[in-house]
Design goal:
Rossmann fold, 14 strands, alpha/beta, eight-stranded mixed sheet
Length: 377
Amino acid sequence: MKVAHLTSAHPRHDTRIFLKQCRSLAAAGHEVTLVVADGRGEERREGVRIIDVGHLAGRMNRILRTTRRVHDRARTLDADVYHLHDPELMPVGRRLKRQGKTVVYDAHEDLPRQVLAKHYLGGLSRRLLSRVTEVYQRLVCRRFDAIVAATPHIRDGFRTFHPQVVDVNNFPMQGELSGAPDPTLASSPEEPPAVCYVGGMAPIRGIREIVRAMESVKQPCRLELAGSFSHLAVEQEVMTYAGWEQVEAHGYLDRDGVRRVMGGALAGLVTLHPVINYLDALPVKMFEYMSAGLPVIASDFPLWREIIEGSDCGLCVDPLDPVAIAGAIDFLVANPVRAREMGANGQRAVAERYNWQQEEQKLLATYQALARGGVSA
C-alpha cells in the first residue's frame, strides 16, 4: 500500500515514527512517505521518502498554519493509508476521512491525562480542558479506521469507544544498544564509575533530584547526562548545585552517542515525577537501559515496580527523594556483581518480551487488516 505518516511536531528521524514504524513498513514492502515540518528539506532514507512542508516558529503557527500545510501536502500524495502522529492533526484526519481516505491515529500519550498534568493552569481550568479534550478526541477518533496506542493503558481508554485499537509499544530494537563493554568494568581506576540519564531534562522528569542525589552519593561515582534541557533557567539552576561537580553533560546525542554513554555506565536513571500522565506510561528509556544491559533505577510507580521487580533488573525509589536515589546508586556501585546480574536479567527480558520486533508484528498485522478492509485489535 501507499502509506503516508504525518507529523507537525516530531523530528524527522523520531525513534517511534521513523526508526521503528516507517522503516518497518518500508521493509515489509509498503511505499512509505513521511511528511514533517522541520525546515530541513526533502530526503529519501532507508526506503522512506521524507517530505518537508517547512518550519514555522511558535505554537499557534504550528497548530493553525503548519497543520494546514501538512493536510494540503498529504492530499497530493493520494495514499491508501494516512497515519497521524500528533493530536493537533485530528482535524486533518477528519478532513481526510471526508475525502474518503483511510486514517489511522497514533496516540503517543494519554491526552486528557496530559492536560491534567499542566500545573501552570488552575485546577478548575485543567479539569475543564481535560474533559473538553476527552470529548473532542472521542468524537473525532471514533470516525477513524484504526487507533494505534503507545501503551496498553492508552489502548484501554480508546477501546471504550472504538472497536479497532491495538497497542504498539515503544520497546527497543534488539541489539541496537547492546554489545557495549561490561558497564561494571568501563571505568579506569583514575575515573570513577558512572550512572547515566538519557532524555529530555526538565523538573518534571526529575533532573533536580538526580543532580542533588550526587551530593549524597558515598561511593566514587559520576553522572553522565545525554539530552537537552527544557529551559535555560533549569540548566543554570542545577549547575549551581554541589552535585554538579560530579556531572558530565553531553547535550543532545544521536543514537551512536547514546550507545557510547550507555556503554560506559553501570546503571540508567529514569526517575520521573509521580504526575498522573506518567504513572501508567512505559518510558522507552527504561527499556533501552535494559536492552543495553544496564540495571535501572526507576520511579517507584506500581506498573514500573511490577516490570523492574518482575524481571529483577533494577531498583525502584521515591523519585522525589535525592537521598533514596543516591542510596540506589551506592548499592550498584558497591555491588558490581549484583549490578551485572540485574543488567543481564533486563537484557533477557527485552529479548523475550519488551522488544520492537514483537511490536512490529502488531503494526504490520494492523496494516494487513486495513488492506483487507478491517482491523483485528
